[in-house]
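Incident log, structure service

09:12 report received: a user says their structure output differs between two submissions of the same chain.
09:20 pulled the input from the user's history:
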Amino acid sequence: MEDNMTLNQLPYGETAEIVSINAAMPLRQRLLEMGLTPRTRVEKIKAAPLGDPVELYLRGYALTMRLEDLERVKISVTDDENIFSP
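09:34 re-ran on a clean worker, output below:
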């Protein structure tokens, strides 16, 4: 998989590391406050029945976000199995 893709492109069940947030304020501030900060590992878990929103797992909690907002989060894919395992 390519590096520096966006979080909405990450396949379900895969883990990635956040590289940057490419959004204008106040969306950028909101994403950072939710824990989507650079170097944070995130796993894309599942989607709602119609595909949007999407559930992510990061920093020990599940977060549900719209695909539109995930397009603003640049990631680098990691080799970790998943972040649910200890």
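09:41 both user submissions now match this output. Likely a transient worker issue. Closing.
09:42 reviewer note: The two ends are 25 Å apart (CA to CA). The chain has a mean pLDDT of 88.
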